[in-house]
Each structure stands twice: as structure tokens, then as C-alpha cells.
Amino acid sequence: MEFATLADRADEIEAEPADLETASLVAALFTEAGPQLATVARFVQGRVFPAHDSTTLDIGPALCHAAIAKAAGHNVTPDDVEAELARVGEIGAVAASYEFGGQTGLGSFGSGGRDGLTVAEVDDELRALAAAEGAGSEDTKLDTLFGLFNRCSPAEAKLLARLVLGEMRIGVGEGTVRDAIAEAFEVPVASVERALQVSNDYGLVAETARDTGTAGLDAMDLDIGRPVQAMLAQAGTVTDALDAWEEVAVETKYDGARVQVHVGDEVRIFSRNMEDVTTALPEVVEFVEEHVDVPTILDGEVVAVDDDGAPRPFQEVLKRFRRKHEVDRMREAVRVELRAFDCLHADGEDLLDEPLTARHDRLQAVLDDEHAVSALLVTTDAEEIAAHGTAALDAGHEGIMLKNPESTYSPGRRGKNWLKRKPDVETLDCVVTGAEWGEGRRAELFGTFRIAVTDGDDYATVGKVATGVTDEQLADLTDLFEPHVREESGTEVTFAPEVVFEVGYEEIQSSPTYGSGYALRFPRFVAVREDKGPADADSLERVERLAARQ
Description:
By secondary structure, the protein is of the alpha+beta class. It has 3 domains: about 45-165, DNA ligase i, domain 1 (Orthogonal Bundle); about 230-420, DNA ligase/mRNA capping enzyme (D-amino Acid Aminotransferase, Chain A, domain 1, 2-Layer Sandwich); about 425-550, CATH 2.40.50.140. It has helices spanning about 5-15, 20-30, 35-45, 60-70, 80-90, 90-95, 120-130, 135-150, 155-165, 175-185, 190-200, 200-220, 240-245, 280-290, 315-320, 325-335, 355-365, 380-395, 470-480, 540-550, and strands at about 230-235, 250-255, 255-265, 265-270, 295-305, 335-345, 350, 375-380, 400-405, 415-420, 425-435, 445-455, 460-465, 485-490, 490-495, 500-505, 505-510, 520, 525-530. Strands 11, 12, 13, 14, 15, 16 and 19 form a 7-stranded antiparallel beta sheet that branches. The N and C termini lie far apart (about 55 Å). Residues about 105-115 have low confidence and may be disordered.
């Protein structure tokens, strides 16, 4: 498929306001995608790699702006691109405003003009770009992007700029792609959804639906080494659980980092965001190798513990979780252990459709260490649940989980079958969308951070947080956010929505100040949730629900 064809279809999809018609337009695109169906199914979502693959392009706004400026001509600078972005507000429109095709140089493919980019070529070039590392990799990426933009028409440049920055903005989410696959290849939506749950690969599912239909989709299974999305919980109470279910399964809620452990020919560990964190957690790998003897996929948390085995704060886990250097030194400084609470696959059998209690039985069977298996209490007694919660808190844990004993495992779903119960003040996981430079001794640091919750495909601001952060932490946060700066205006800075803060607060109040209609009263910084991405942040719906309970 020509990249220009995909760009034209993307414009048509973006212009369609109705969800059903959007899905039909995407379905039509899929039927004409040919050999590039898998790539097209990812590109329309702003993805280059499957959802289970943690590989990234590692291209920030500054590099993209530099490539656009280089392809646009000698009279255009990256500052010009940034100024136009501040005026227009969207990188695709900025890229489409320039005339490319006249530049020559190392990255221009030697043609100096447009010679028909294909979807396959763009995919290959972006994958090569992602693989670039080490000395000179920044220049390689710039040259590669320059070469691509130099061959783009305005519509292609618009699509390419959005794709490399992950800002597709054409109204196509995961549900749209699911429905489009079903419509395009005349297969049941339920079969597509199940296949997506076990594979976490929209391109693979689209190809399977086209090539082998319903039978092929229904035959798809979990694959050890290929992570799937974690099942999620929502906030709830003991009363909620007892009203909803005949019995309640109660577990300790650990203050750790969510992991999915795959045991096959080797042990691999994936974070909540499906990033491979195996090398950062060698003692967990060694423990699993010793205590699990069959092919298995476990769900659980990695917790930091002291010499007596008592839990340490979540921030200590993060010192280990994504570390790539000095792992041995940090292993000595921060000891971590596995706490497994679910089993998705055991010895050749997928367990997603089994009830929670059956999965827990299999967990106990495959992991021969009682200390590492989270205990499961099934009861109808509110006082017994309360006692379990008190014991968990006294032991230094975060609270308790309340689960439906009959619930199946639904990857990526935040349903009502798992409820998290925390004591006292709630926290919210908020996306950081901007900041203000500090004053006085903090003038060179970001001092106040604008925080938001998810609202569909957008973000709704719920306040600004400046308390709870030390000067040392502000310096680290400034370094963290600088690559994500989109634009600056005076002391105000706008970020690409990449980083999630855990934020404490006293209450939620109605507010005309923010677009969400709500503001957090006395918000305070708790931690950077390095284990979460923007899609994992709390939603405006949850804010509304919490506000209604006050």
C-alpha cells in the first residue's frame, strides 16, 4: 500500500464524527491494506510496534521538529517549527504546512524528491530508527526522519509527524480497531476481543481474522514470552463487594510494582506497561527458576523488603525496577521479593476463563513457596474482612483487594470484579501535562506541575501540585520532564503526556477553573508512577465517583 493512500484514508477517518461510520471507514481501509494489513492496523492507532512490544522509537518533539525543519529548507529552523506549533497547536498540521521534496543529503535517499513512499518502507525505516543506539544514534535518527519527510506530500507529512510522536488524533482507539476487524472480515466481535486479549497484537489479530476467520481467532492462545495487559481494579468498599457477590475473596494489597512473570525456556519479567524488566530483577529470576518447574505465566507484584522481610515503601521498589546499570550494587541496597496472586497459564493450559479460586489453586501448585503466594481468604463475614484489612495495614502493606471468587481474568479490563480498598485518604494517578518554572533558588527548576486525569482520548486538568517535593526531587523531575517539553510561553511549559504522578489530596471539590469541573484540594506529590503510562492513569469518571462519595 502506498503511504499516500494511507494518509488520505486517515484524513477521511479524522473528518468523520460518528463512531460507527469511523469503524466502517477503518474496516474498508483494512480490506484494501493487502500484505501491509498488520502494519496498517498498528499505524492507525499511532503504533509502530505491537502493543506487547516495549520497543519505542525514542523520538522526542525536539528531534522531530529538527527533522521537519531540515526537510523544509535552509530558511526554516527548529525554533520556527516550535513557534508554528504554538500557533497551530498540533504537529501534524505544522508538518503539512511545509513543502518538502527539494532537499538533498545523506538522509534524503539520494532522490531529493517524492518517489512514492510505501507503508512497508515507512515501517522498515522507523524500525531501523528504533534500533539505532550508541554514539551517533541521534544523528542517525535525524537523518532517517529527514529522509522520510523529504519524500512526503503534505498529507503524508501530517501522518508521519503524528505517527513518530504517537499523537495520531484521528479518533481511532482500540475499540474502533476491534470493531473494524470484525466488520472487515465478517467475524464475531467476541472472537476478535478474545484474540486481542491473549495476543495483545492488533496486527496479528487482523491478519488472522482475514486469513483463517473465526476458527483461527478462537484457536489463538497465550504465548509464553509475549506479555498481555494486566487485569485492573477499581476503588470500592466492603459493602460494595458483599452486595455484589455471594462470597468475597480477600487478598493483601501490596505496595509494590506490578509484574507478569513468564516461565518458559527462560524466565522473563514484564512491568505493568509490558516493558521487559528482567535484567533489573536478577534475584526474582533466580527465585522463579528455583521454585517453578513448568511453563507458567504469573501475575503479581515485586515488593521491597528489609532484612526482616518487612515491606519497604513503593519508592524503594522504583530504585530497582527499571535500572539498567549498577544492578548488582542496587541489589545490595534494595532487596526485592515476588508476591504472586494469580496464574494465567500453567503447564500448557490457559487459565483466563477459569474462576479466580481455581486459578489460585493452580498458582499454589506451580509455585512451591508459600511465602511468595498471596493468601486468599474467601468469606461472607464483614468483620473477618475488616480484621484481614487491619492485619495487612499493621504489617506495613497498602490495604486489601476484594475480588469476586468466580471472576475470570480479563486482560486490560478495569471492571467491578476486582476492588481495591485503601485506608483513609485516596490518591489519584494523574498525567502531568505541564508545569511552571520556579522562583528564587528554584528558578532553574520546574516548581509547579499541572496534573490531569484521562477523559476518553483527552486529558482533563484537576489541579496543580507543588507540595510534597524536595529540592533534590525537583532537580530529578526537571531532568525527567525536559525531553517531554512541547512548548513554552513565559513561565508556563506544556509537556507531552508521558509521566504519571501519584497525588494525594484532602478532598475533591467542584471548580470552574479547570475543564474537568473539579479540583483537588491541597494536592501533594507522592511519587512518580514509573510503572504506569498515561493510559493507566485515573479517569474523570473515577474523580466524579469519588467526589459523589464525599
